[in-house]
User: Which sequence fits this backbone?
């Protein structure tokens, strides 16, 4: 028979599996919740779930460390983002608790509280993904053998509608510091990610003779290398930046980065971008709108989607659905065909009828 005892602040439950006594701190202060967990454990044992004393003691904090280590081992650049999301939202709710004490109802309660503060479904889903990964890694490492709660993601309405056109771009550029303008111009043409792909570009990635700029494999979000041949606008842009680079060298400043402020690497331009957009009369525009706009411009210019995806680094055509971008060439062809169909009867036809 299982037992429930209160040890300090929390209740402790005791139960048996194959004659082995297992004691577990529930992490809860209410008797009814402790009783429900005891019933859950006894039911799992009856179903053959391999519960052990060790598997009931692994905590969310332990499992989260494994998630962070997994990001480090695989060289994922989003490690800092995962740590921030966990510190802000997951640890305050699940920290200190055993993985075995986290139920499907607990996950639902977490989602409900996040929705109460108007957190976006996409944001909540990223947090749930961390929690789900924590359970999976703990299970793979044989640290946890209990039941994994059902973690259902919310529906995301992720059609992105932010775009920048030529007129908007020039107005925003006029408000930006001069050192940041080349970054934005390149992003508008290439569709590359500003923070992770454009700002780290060094002159060794640029071949002015053949007219192309490259990203090394392993430096992009999808780990694939990429090349973007110069357009006329890009050739002019990089020629100007090279002239500036040579002038810095003559002054004794060696800067390997293509985009810089007085020889120092640009770490971020989010605030400057936001301020410039507000001053230009377009508040709320995002840097990522430049990427969306580049994709749309390529589509309108008649580039095949396979070529456009190679240039921008998108792996699937799902981007066109998310960005609500349709093929203008296909639409034009469809309208031209409609022009050849007679849908309204002529006056002569009505008279003869």
Assistant:
């Amino acid at each position: 028979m299982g037992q429930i005892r209160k040890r300090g602040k929390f209740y402790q439950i005791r139960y048996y599996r194959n004659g082995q006594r297992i004691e577990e701190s529930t992490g809860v202060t209410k008797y009814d919740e402790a009783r429900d967990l005891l019933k859950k454990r006894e039911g799992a044992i009856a179903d053959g779930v391999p519960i052990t004393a060790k598997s009931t003691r692994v905590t969310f904090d332990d499992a989260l460390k494994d998630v962070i280590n997994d990001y480090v081992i695989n060289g994922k650049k989003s490690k800092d983002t995962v740590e921030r999301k966990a510190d802000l939202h997951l640890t305050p709710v699940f920290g200190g608790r055993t993985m075995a004490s986290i139920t499907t109802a607990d996950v639902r309660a977490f989602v409900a509280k996040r929705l109460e503060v108007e957190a976006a479904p996409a944001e909540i889903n990223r947090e749930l993904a961390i929690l789900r990964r924590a359970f999976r890694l703990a299970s793979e490492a044989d640290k946890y053998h209990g039941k994994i709660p059902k973690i259902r993601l919310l529906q995301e309405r992720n059609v992105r509608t932010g775009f920048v056109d030529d007129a908007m771009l020039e107005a925003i550029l006029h408000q930006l510091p001069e050192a940041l303008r080349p970054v934005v111009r390149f992003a508008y043409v290439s569709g590359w990610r500003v923070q992770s792909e454009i700002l780290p570009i060094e002159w060794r990635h640029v071949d002015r003779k053949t007219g192309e700029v490259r990203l090394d494999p392993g430096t992009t979000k999808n780990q694939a290398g990429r090349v973007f041949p110069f357009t006329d606008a890009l050739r002019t842009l990089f020629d100007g930046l090279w002239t500036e680079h040579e002038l810095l060298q003559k002054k004794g400043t060696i800067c390997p980065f293509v985009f810089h402020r007085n020889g120092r690497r640009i770490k971020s331009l989010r605030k400057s971008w936001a301020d410039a957009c507000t001053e230009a009369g377009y508040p709320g525009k995002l840097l990522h709108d430049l990427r969306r706009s580049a994709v749309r411009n390529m589509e309108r210019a008649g580039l095949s989607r396979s070529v456009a995806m190679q240039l921008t680094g998108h792996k699937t055509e799902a981007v066109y659905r998310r960005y609500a971008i349709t093929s203008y060439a296909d639409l034009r062809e469809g309208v031209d065909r409609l022009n050849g169909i007679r849908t309204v009867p002529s006056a002569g036809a009505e008279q003869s009828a």
User: Anything to note?
Assistant: The mean pLDDT is 86. Residues 99 and 181 are 49 Å apart (CA to CA). The first strand starts at residue 3 and ends at 7.
